[in-house]
Amino acid sequence: MIRRVIYAAILVLTGIYVFNHLEELKLIVSTFRQGEYLWMIAAVGAHILWLVAIAASLQSTYRLSGIRENLRHLIPLTTAGNFINVVAPSYGVGAMAVFMADGSKRGKAAGKVSTGSILYLVYDYIGFMLILPGGLIILSMRGALTPIITASALIAAGIAMFVFTATYLGLKNTNQLKSVLQSLTGSINRALYFLLKRELIPAVKVDLFIKDVVSGLQGMRGSVGTLILPAVFALSRKASAMLILYFSAMAFQVRLDGGALFASFTIAYLFNIVSITPSGIGFVEGALTLILNALGIPLAEAAAITMTYRGITFWLTLIYGIGAIRIIGYPLTPYRPAKADPLPAQPPQPNEASFKRDTKLSP
Questions:
Q1: What is the reported pTM?
Q2: Domain of 80?
Q3: I want to staple 62 with a disulfide (CB 3.0 to 4.6 A). Which of 67, 241, 302, 348 is the partner?
Q4: pLDDT, tens digit, for every residue of 264-314?
Q5: Is residue 328 part of a domain?
């Protein structure tokens, strides 16, 4: 019964979201029909690669927190998380709740799942901070850097510094970490209460949850050799997204040079971060169209490229998310702390009466 109610609620939220953006969706479908289909197929293939890279990024940060998970399972899981973030906006809390509920169902420590999810966000910002300066330099050299872009970049850098500082403090100060996690678990419970009508993580189990998080962070400290891999995957995600943008341009016979591709993708990702709408809807489309035009692409082609790119990275991901919800079995279960490792078997102790009897019989 709960499963049906949750699915029904998700479908209702999806229907409301699609209805509110119906005109944009019609425009995207119309744009798709105008592009060269071979390049469109290539863009969809790059999109699948992008989804795999997202799952591989989460897998690598899970490993840092001490969790081993199959990539085949994480692909629909991360897609479902992105879907929930869109239809039920909660600044990423919805996706984390999906990850934690899935981990609980599969016997994973929710605290370690949460740690892996937070590290995923940290590495995502690391990857973006590595490419942001290059994109801004290219725009400056081509006379396309505006005060709005500069201000947005400063906001994104401030958000990244906050994420990095919070993670560092969590590693250094358990009390501060506890305060942050208590606030986080409260947000997760509030975000999902309308679906579950109960707390995902009961208040009495928050301390156990925090213990799991600390355990995951301690595991990360001892994994210096694997710290680079999540950064590689974070950059690969952005490279595959650039590939989608390049193929989207080629579908309309526009060949973006390396500089224009790098800079335009940087701006699209920048406004995805600083915008107040889910996944930057509205803001990314406007910013990407304007920046492509500023880089020398005619306005009509720039708009078509943007609609195609966003149609694939946003709307196609949303469609995949509906199927992903079914694959992972979205019904959520309360947090259950991981089972403690079984104690080693003790050898049987001799019965005292038997011991005395054997002693008397001994010569």
A1: 0.76
A2: 2-333
A3: 67
A4: 999 999 998 888 777 778 889 999 999 999 999 999 999 999 999 999 998
A5: yes
